[in-house]
Amino acid sequence: MDRRHDLDTLRVIAFALLILYHVGMVYVVDWGFHIKSPTLLAWVEWPMVLVNRWRMSLLFLLSGITLGLVLARRAPARLVGTRSWRLLLPLAFGIVAVVPVQVYCEARTLGTIAPGFAAFLLRYLQLRPWPAGTFTGAEYGFTWNHLWYLAYLWVYTLGVLAALPLLRAFGGTRLADWLTARGRWLLWTLPALWLLFALLVLAPRYPSTHAVAGDWFNHAKYLPVFAFGVLIARRATIWTALDAHRWTLTGLALLGATVYMTLRVIGRLLDTGAMSAAGLDAWMPLPGWKLVSVGAHALYAWTALLAMLAWGARLLNRPWPGLRYASEAVYPWYILHQSLIVFAAYWLIPLRLGPLWEPLLVLAITVAGCLLIHELLIRRIRWLRPLFGLPRAARPARGAGPGHADVSTARSA
């Protein structure tokens, strides 16, 4: 099986965007985060909105594809143990050893705890509930903050692995063959329609919590793309069709993004009173415009994912200098980055460095911290490697398959 360099590269790009996005969260107006700078940047919202509509879905999609590729080499029952080890061990370690840094900075900023990280950590490691409002998730006794992705990925992975024998027993293989051959139009349209339903019906009722239980809108958004990735991973007909329709998919994504962002700008003007709703009402009642906006959102989110897969397979399926190193670094950097962002912002905000130097230094400290901790400690200390999702021994010089760059397995299926 050939190595899929495009999946490696897309994953590196996705996690690089995640770091930029979380730095932006410190400065974007009206979006809650663990620490906020008084130096808010209004313009940051617009590129963040564009990225936000597909950024986490792309990670779940890539992880689903990776699982589908690995299933060609490993039995589902065997994967349960290896995937649980690669996901749950870093999750548990992150909760007790990495996330407390950002929790402490958040609580100190809120003024809900006394100074002293050692005393705070001793209390935090007791995993007893805190008074509500002490920090995000305090009522649970601990929090996983940005590491929620690992918990969701574990749940989805075990769900798919458990369902596969049943699907195969009841004709699931034949259905998958039909969907990826003659029923491809359903794969192109149904996910977008499902997302439209989720946005209209589930999102207002089930706001995002990242707590697994009861987080129905997020499950409705992420589980289908993960399952789609598993389905298409080894289906050559799908990848051929994606390549053939790459320009159409790109055009639809641009159309959806343009309509969605235009209506979002108009909505902002209506909210501020800079524009009257009378003109819009003459064309269509405001609930109709809301439906158009949500429909454009769903169209953009889904076709952008397909277009990225298509262009990635066409342009990125080749090695480039540093890809192997970057692919391995993804998992440790993911675990470390948000705590470093919050820590850097916590120390830099009082210095009042302004709207240019402060965010640039937060980003620089985050990247430097991830690089140094990964390179000098995680890669070189055998017992540290599994805690950050890496195999205990360094990788051999040559890979052995396309599915070993996933953040959830750290090149060890």
TrEMBL record:
Keywords: Acyltransferase, Membrane, Transferase, Transmembrane, Transmembrane helix. One of its GO terms (molecular function) is acyltransferase activity, transferring groups other than amino-acyl groups. The chain crosses the membrane at residues 12-34, 54-72, 84-104, 146-164, 185-203, 249-270, 290-311, 331-349, 361-378. The keyword Transport does not apply. Residues 5-374 form the Acyltransferase domain. The keyword Iron-sulfur does not apply. PANTHER family: BLR4337 PROTEIN (PTHR36927), GLUCANS BIOSYNTHESIS PROTEIN C (PTHR36927:SF3). This is Acyltransferase family protein. It comes from Luteimonas deserti. The lineage of its organism: Bacteria, Pseudomonadati, Pseudomonadota, Gammaproteobacteria, Lysobacterales.
